[in-house]
């Protein structure tokens, strides 16, 4: 090990990249635009709130933070993109909760905990299940009754297979003793188009459905937080309906494994300041979302804990990949 360290030091010195020179170089970071990869399509709650965060971070960093949408695969494509990106801080990505399930559902050659540098957790979602206002299903009791009378015929859409809306609805169905038919979509915009067009009977998603509810086109059957949503006070929580389920699916930002600690800290500090800007808080409020700060260390620990917890959910639903 000592010989390897001495060799690395000699090589760095030969190219003029001494540790002191490297430290000085990182103090000038960033020197070009930063790419922030988002897991969902343009126009949805995640995209709009993350663009507000990116704009604020750009002002702090003095360089543009450019959003790139990479939807699909249950929100895990940005994390996978990090595996081939340089560990220099110029490519970062949203890390949805589905990333922590990936190793149990898909064969991958990287580790969601060890192979991502966790920068900061920024927020979580407010979720719920909605139906069209002209649906004969007027409340959750009607939903359960219809599903029991028509096993496997009640269709619901989500923002993708193995996402939090999908898995939480399946856990809920299991607890309610009903069988549903799941239809995955790439994001909220596609899902809302589907339910408004009658392609599915219900939608389980974050509150991208809020404008449709406020316009009188959709009805909220339940919400998934610890408390009722202030904007929809008549919609009961799952806990109130008798289910031991609370889901807000926290998410944040990660960088490639091996990103220098100085760069991680610079990004953390910039995004933390961006989170505190009133414009970001206002953007979140449109979708009943709240800031949910976790430091780099806390976010890393959250990743470890969540990987263990999500295995139990996947196993319970029998959705793990064949071994």
How many strand units? 11
Radius of gyration, CA atoms, in whole angstroms: 22 Å
Instruction: Pick out the low-confidence regions.
Output: 10-17
Helix segment tally = 12
| SS-based class | alpha/beta
Description of the structure:
This protein has about 325 residues and is α/β, with parallel strands linked by helices. The chain is about 40% helix and about 20% strand. It is built from 12 helices and 11 strands. It has helices spanning about 1-15, 20-25, 45-60, 75-80, 100-105, 140-150, 165-175, 190-195, 210-215, 260-275, 280-285, 295-315; strands at about 35-40, 65-70, 90-95, 115-125, 125-130, 155-160, 180-185, 200-205, 220-225, 250-255, 290-295. The strands form 2 sheets. The protein has a 6-stranded mixed β-sheet. Strands 7-6-8-5-9 form a 5-stranded mixed β-sheet. Strand 1, helix 3 (about 45-60) and strand 2 (about 65-70) form a beta-alpha-beta unit. The longest helix has 22 residues, at about 295-315. It is globular and about 65 Å long.
